[in-house]
Amino acid sequence: MTATLAPAGVAGLARDDLRARTDSLASGAVHHGGTAVRVEGIVKSYGGGGPAALEGVSLDIAPGELLALLGPSGSGKTTLLRVIAGLEIPDGGRVFFGRQDTTDIPVQRRGVGFVFQHYALFRHLTVFENIAYGLRSRERRRRPPEAEIRARVERLLDLVQLPTLARRYPGQLSGGQRQRVALARALAVEPSVLLLDEPFGALDAQVRKDLRRWLREIHRETGQTTIFVTHDQDEALELADRIAILNRGRIEQVGAPHEVQDNPASRFVMSFVGETARLAAEIREGQVWVDGRPVLAAEPGWPQGPVDLCLRPWDLSVGHGENALPGTVREWRRTGRGTVAEIHLDGAEAPVEVAVTDVYRPGDRVGLEASAARVFPRG
Amino acid sequence: MSETVASPRGIAALTEPRPVRIALILAALLFLGLFLLLPLAVVFTEALSKGLGSLLDTFAEPDAQAAIRLTLLVAAIAVPLNVAFGLAASWAIAKFDFRGRNLLITLIDLPFSVSPVVAGLIYVLIFGSQGLIGPFLQRHGIEIIFAVPGIVLATVFVTFPFVARELIPLMQDQGTTDEEAALTLGASPWRVFRTVTLPNIRWALLYGVLLCNARAMGEFGAVSVVSGRIRGLTNTMPLHVEILYNEYNYVAAFGIASLLALLALVTLAGKTFLEWRHADSLAGRGGH
Questions:
Q1: Which of A123, B42, B125, B170 has its CA 20 to 30 A from that of B228?
Q2: Looking at this predicted complex, what is its ipTM?
Q3: CB neighbours of B151 closer than 8 A, spacing ≥ 6?
Q4: Which residues from B are below 8 Å from A46, CB to CB?
Q5: Pairing label, strands A242-247, A305-311
Q6: Nearest residue to B222 (alpha-carbon basis) of B127, B135, B156, B161
Q7: What is the share, in percent, of chain B residues with pLDDT greater than 70?
Q8: How far, in Å, CA of B128 to CA of A224, rounded?
Q9: What is the DSSP letter of A4?
Q10: Burial (0-12, 13-18, 19+ Cβ within 10 Å), A250
Q11: Contacts B97 to A, Cβ<8 Å
Q12: B74-94 pLDDT per residue, tens
């Protein structure tokens, strides 16, 4: 008798859990302080004497936070995500979920939800059974009764806006629908943290955009602590509460989107989170000099001597004063918001797109005046 | 024929004139008929030449029944062993990266490149009375050569690439993310294997089992070296066919042969069905 009662009791608890979470959401209390996930000094190499995938990465993720791991391919962002999930075992460092050290806990018992770039749905199971898989995988005494599983899967199908597709097979769905199912499947186990590995990487541009907005909504609705990996800075800037920018196995900067955009901590961050024109310059006598020409007043606190001068396109405008930087027009075209010219500044590595009012032809010489800039010591 | 006439636009890029096409098709059909269909028809007509009654008498004969039983027994042991081996090998090769992986792939193909007779001789040289550990086995009363264990060993050797060869490319293609997904959802390794890996490969596995079984029942060369052909004891169906034939007992020889031919036809039908119905989940035949 007690044996038959026990599962119902557990299920009741689970339901209460869910309700408690929804209540806390309703009151807007998503951030409780503390950390949901913490990694400390993670080191991981893939052997062969090559460069380490991760070289001592530490990071805190707050409960309810939506954090982006942003970086170019090979920066170690996916490896870090897989270490947090338990799919990779780090060579050094620790992983904590809340206060619990989970470094040595196998992936099955970490309670993470993982969404793969290529969905990884079970192709021989229906959408319904895919979502129910995690619940059915539980050992008998923790497994919710069939009715509870059914109810929960249906709730998740509603959440991901696919209530009519329960009986379909993954092969019959579009890419965007598959990724929604994958997300529902990951959420079904009520993970302590949701991990998404380039979740929109395999989708076309329009679907990406829709799903981005939709993921943001889901996150607001569930308050689920979420870490997602992307190499797309727009995606990270638009979606994330905070962004961790990785380069060659190290974290270059962690901060809110406006922080990394307005106050990049390094030259790498500067050029990775937005279009940048970079010029060799020198600071002396309170001025920034490029090619023997003073182009900008130096701000207090900027280093003296040789620097890299980094300019955002929106801080540049066409002008002909003696401070203007010379450049060559590569291309001129109309866009939905006006006309832009692709201008290659003399001495820069790559051209930048600047909003212009006049008509230009490729090859025209123009001057650009900078209203703001960032400098990094050359080295 | 009707197809080539019915869809001339589909092959517009092929510039061969129609007579050439027809000649090529006829040549292929003639070749197939002469070397495949005609012999098959001969087997069945010879078996039935003295009427159905005498054919059934052939199967009632104790030695024939013993041969059939032995063949079924050998297949019943060799096929599961090779399923287990094939699964283990292809799992290891497809899902892990280890030193010697390519060597293992090459070794799996070895039985295809070695003559079955040589394979049989290897076992005689190891387990035979003059062989490496033959005297040791003799002292302990263990019979391998000229007994059922030898036949099973030779059959396992000859048939072991079949399952692995079907599974390796498919599993390599599928990668490990499905398994990883199941693990993150809390499934135990055994549940992952049962509910994710096995369903992903089930049709390719069945395909491999069919081919493996057909070869296990039909193997002649390797088995004939190790069997000793003791009637009613170590004679498999293919060996029994040869003995009967050498004794000019054509009805019986072709009778047993027709059973083997029937097995081939069933295998072929099963294989065709799998290719038609589940083409997308067999190795190297399209995506997923």
A1: B42
A2: 0.79
A3: B70, B74, B223, B226, B227, B234, B236
A4: none
A5: unpaired
A6: B156
A7: 92
A8: 69
A9: H
A10: middle
A11: none
A12: 999 999 999 999 999 999 998
